[in-house]
Amino acid sequence: MNRGDLRRIDFNLLVVFETLMQERSVSRAAERLFLGQPATSAALARLRDLFDDPLFVRTGRTMEPTSRAEEIFIQLQPALDAISGVLSNTSTFDPATSENVFTIGLSDDVEFALLPALLKRLRTEAPGIVLVVRRANYLLMPHLLSTGEISVGVAFTRDLPANAKRRILRRSRPRVLRADSVPGTLSLDEFCARPHAMVSHAGDLSSYVDEQLATLGRSRHVVLAVPQFNGLGTLLAGTDIISTVPDYAAAALSAGGGLRDEEVPFESPVFELSMVWRSAQDNDPAERWLRSRIQMFAGDPDSL
């Protein structure tokens, strides 16, 4: 195909194809693209004509891509990223007049501890923008980034997709949260003897705390695992249960009263809270502005 033949191609079809590859479902792809299911099915029919291949074969409730579809997807994603980057570089962004919709991924500790200050700044500079927050953590972040469901995320992260970039926002140490009125700080013996609550995104009952205690020949007893941080204050109130959380989350939780935080009674690791984003939007003026504000109001310059 020569360049002149590109005039007969509807490039919207390529976006539909990419979304179908990511979702493996016509209905979910339609929902993400804000299209009706009949329109998405019609686009799939046109794609099959365009590439002269079935592209997807229904297997149970999902649509499995053919080998031809996999081959097209590998070549198409970098091309769409490049086109997106070119168009972003030619656009302008004025926060004072912008009505952009930004979709970001935040872990819940970041959402309740760090988002309020960021939001106040965004509302001051860009009162017309819309901020959509998706719940993200180290398990969800790779998928949200690779599918484009978010443009930027903040969380403790592990493996990331190849199309993502990362910047460390702050280095955090854990703190112990407690609601009791017993004076003084907990010794290691007291820490191990107390019942513990932990935040577990995957439903596990152990974490780095248990790994650190194991190196000392010690252990703890977890009596509660919850999927998010922001309910810990209510759960710990009136009990002898303690919880170990990141320092910025401990500060936000104890600021409301009824809780106090202190150092953990053992040598603790340092954790890196990162901002991650899609490479295709690295030079997008609007996204660069948003990332700069996240760096400014969610980052900790003293710890970098």
Architecture overview:
This protein is of the alpha/beta class and 304 residues long. The chain has 3 domains: 3-89, Arc Repressor Mutant, subunit A; 101-170 and 272-303, Periplasmic binding protein-like II (D-Maltodextrin-Binding Protein, domain 2); 174-269, Periplasmic binding protein-like II (D-Maltodextrin-Binding Protein, domain 2, 3-Layer(aba) Sandwich), CATH 3.40.190.10. The chain is built from 12 helices and 12 strands. The strands form 3 sheets. Strands 4-3-5-12-6 form a 5-stranded mixed beta sheet. Strands 9-8-10-7-11 form a 5-stranded mixed beta sheet. Strands 1-2 form a two-stranded antiparallel sheet. Strand 8 (195-199), helix 9 and strand 9 (221-226) form a beta-alpha-beta unit. The longest helix has 23 residues, at 67-89. It is elongated.
